[in-house]
């Protein structure tokens, strides 16, 4: 029986990735390192510290010359300064009903301060558990964040379904032995071949979630 639904945050619950990319771009401009914002969309789901290290290595060839924790801290402040939170149509109402049937959790590669601010602002009282970049040593695409969520929820992997919008997130969920559906918010749907089901947009995702019940079998 299905007992829980686990959500990625950016691109699933809130339309926020463009602000993440813009915030990182601003900080990299300040430190004089070139970067391609498309890399952030491609690597969405990873911990911020891992994305920053990747971008520094790609842009300079030596990330060790930089104070990565300081860059992450500056990025968080810049994101909070510029972000205009927008939820996807129908998601708030959908999750308000869904929490009466399932335990709900968030698993995000974003840093805890950002996750808490967004969840408290747009989805108060909805989620039983939150797993952020600060809660695991290995982020997506490794299975650790989703295994942590399953442990916190007190369930087995086959008793939950994951909603993702990033290929690395789908990979992490599948490595953790979880059913995973995807909505390709920012990338081509062809990149989600590992997902058990792909919805063309949030309208279709909301329809699926509204009809979800504990007897759902991902592999039927």
Describe the SSE topology.
Blueprint: E1 4-7, H1 17-31, H2 37-42, H3 48-60, H4 68-82, H5 91-98, E2 103-107, H6 112-122, E3 129-131, H7 144-153, E4 160-164, H8 167-175, E5 179-182, E6 197-198, H9 202-210
Parallel strand pairs: 1-2, 1-4, 2-3, 4-5, 5-6
Helix pairs in contact: 1-4, 3-4, 5-9
Notes on the protein architecture:
- The protein is an alpha/beta fold and 220 residues long.
- It contains nine helices and six strands.
- It has helices at residues 17-31, 37-42, 48-60, 68-82, 91-98, 112-122, 144-153, 167-175, 202-210; strands at 4-7, 103-107, 129-131, 160-164, 179-182, 197-198.
- A six-stranded parallel β-sheet has the order 3-2-1-4-5-6, with helices on both faces.
- The radius of gyration is 17 Å and the shape is globular.
- It starts with a strand and ends in a 10-residue tail after the last helix.
Low-confidence stretches: none
Reported for the largest beta sheet, the result is: 6 strands, parallel
What share of residues are in beta strands?
A: 5-15%
Overall residue-averaged pLDDT value: 95
* Ends distance: 13 Å
SSE order: EHHHHHEHEHEHEEH
Strand order of the largest sheet: 3-2-1-4-5-6
**Total count of helical runs of at least 4 residues:** 9
| Total beta-strand segments | 6
Q: Structural class, judged by helices and strands?
A: alpha/beta
Helix content: 40-55%
Shape: globular
